[in-house]
Amino acid sequence: MEDIGESLVAVLVSILAAALTLIFVVVVVSGLVGTVGFKLGLLSAEGEAWIGISLGIPLGLVCAILVFVYCFKRIRGYGRLP
């Protein structure tokens, strides 16, 4: 039973960390890239908006998956750093 509880806590914390990472990457990183591109004249206003979809969401999903795996391993104790 203790193993199931530990796994449940690890999954919940990892999901929370992954969700926050996804939101951060989509809002902050892609927003920053779009704004800088627009200010430099490399993107139109429409291009600035599409950066969030075409760059932010896929990049955010990859980062969220990596954060989920890392957090789960660290909480479960499988990925202990020296």
Concise overview:
This protein is mainly α. The protein has two helices and no strands.
Would you kindly provide a written description of the structure presented here, covering whatever features stand out?
- This protein is mostly helical.
- It has one domain.
- The protein has 2 helices and no strands.
- α1 packs antiparallel against α2.
- The longest helix has 38 residues.
- The model has no long low-confidence stretch (mean pLDDT 84).
Describe the secondary structure blueprint for this structure.
Blueprint: H1 2-39, H2 45-76
Helix pairs in contact: 1-2
DSSP E strands, number: 0
What is the tally of helical segments? 2
How would you classify the helix and strand content by structural class?
mainly alpha
Mean pLDDT: 84
Q: Any idea what the shape is?
A: rod-shaped
Number of domains: 1
Give the H and E element order: HH
Distance between the termini: 29 Å
Cα radius of gyration in angstroms: 17 Å
Low-confidence stretches: none
What portion of the residues fall into strands of 2 or more residues? under 5%
Largest pleated sheet: none
Helix content: over 70%
Protein traits:
82 residues, mainly alpha, single chain, 0% strand, 85% helix
